[in-house]
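Task 17 of the worksheet. Students: predict the tertiary structure of the chain below and write it out as structure tokens. Keep your answer in the requested format; marks are given for formatting as well as content.
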Amino acid sequence: MPLILALLPFVLLIAAEITAFILVGEAIGVLPTVALVFALSVAGVVLTRRQGLGALLRIRAELDAGRMPGEAMGHAAMIVLAGTLLIIPGFVTDAIGLLLFVPAVRTALWRAIGRRLKVKVVRTGPRRGGPVVDLDPDAYSPVPDRPPERLPPAP
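Model answer:
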């Protein structure tokens, strides 16, 4: 029974898409309907690229300012989802995708979803603050009795 409930939204989406195709096809004809689907897919690619680059710049600006770019990353994820929905053939997914390209809609969604998300910061790199030197096993030999040799300064 849980599998049927999990698949129900997808079945309903497919039924809505088929219904939308039939209604649009009856209203404007078959060839214009197919052309509209292709045009919306191309628009999805263009909008995703344009707004996605802007989102990446906002993420970078937040990181450069030393702040966690949570909202900017949420907007970027919604832009990718919007582009994906526009690329998928169908009028219902296109309508949802176009709505997600509107910044006010993304902001409202972020306010509804963002406070439920938990962000965990993971720091990588050396723990003691020094540089990491990666050597091949044959480039050194451990000698515990003497201190390490200092390399001469680089010219």
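Marker's comment: Residues 70 and 119 are 8 Å apart (CA to CA). The mean pLDDT is 85.
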